[in-house]
Amino acid sequence: MRRNIFDECIDVYPKDEWLKLIAGLREKLSQFNREQVRSKNKETLQAIIDNDSLDESKKKDAVNEMITLTDIAEKESNAEMMLEAKGFTDVVVSMNDDGCDVVLNMGEATDAKRAQVEDIVKRKTGVSADKIVITPIQ
């Protein structure tokens, strides 16, 4: 059977190292995609704000939406940083109208760890516990 470079890399690096690398890449890609969408939304809102032909109420709505987007991004980032400071890895926190999704590598998903994640996310985002969905990855 013909081997390729990927097969040779698998022989060199342990499977758990590959899984960690893939999880980290997945986290960064998710954050990158989220930031791209936000950047596009902010660009659209800025165009509305700068448009002289629109009335002031529409501009005010766009300013308020821009403030909301910035506030959400800050809350997500604060929660991610605190979770990482507590030793969790590959953390992505995503707030939406329905609540908050948390994807992270938490090792063994014990009740104590879930409670810790939930407490941090509640404090940093203001989202109630019943609206937080924790998805562990490994």
Overview of this structure, please?
With 138 residues, the chain is of the alpha+beta class. Helix content is 64%, strand content 15%. Strand 1 and strand 2 (99-105) form a beta hairpin. The chain is flat. It starts with a helix and ends with a strand. The mean pLDDT is 84.
List keywords for this structure.
138 residues, alpha+beta, three-stranded mixed beta sheet, 4 helices, 3 strands
Summarize the structure.
With 138 residues, the protein is α+β, with helices and mostly antiparallel strands. The protein contains four helices and three strands.
Summarize the helices and strands and which ones pair or pack.
Elements: H1 5-12, H2 15-50, H3 56-85, E1 89-96, E2 99-105, H4 111-125, E3 132-137
Parallel strand pairs: 2-3
Antiparallel strand pairs: 1-2
Q: What would you report as the Rg, rounded to the nearest angstrom?
A: 20 Å
Biggest sheet descriptor:
3 strands, mixed
Q: Helix count, per DSSP?
A: 4
What's the number of extended β-strand segments? Answer: 3
Q: What is the ordering of alpha helices and beta strands?
A: HHHEEHE
What percentage of amino acids are in beta strands?
15-25%
Helix content: 55-70%
Overall shape: it is: flat
Structural class: alpha+beta
Q: Compute the separation of the termini in Å.
A: 31 Å
Q: Could you name the ranges where pLDDT drops below 50 across 5 or more consecutive residues?
A: none
Task: Round the mean pLDDT to the nearest integer and report it.
Answer: 84
Walk across the major sheet and give the strand order: 1-2-3
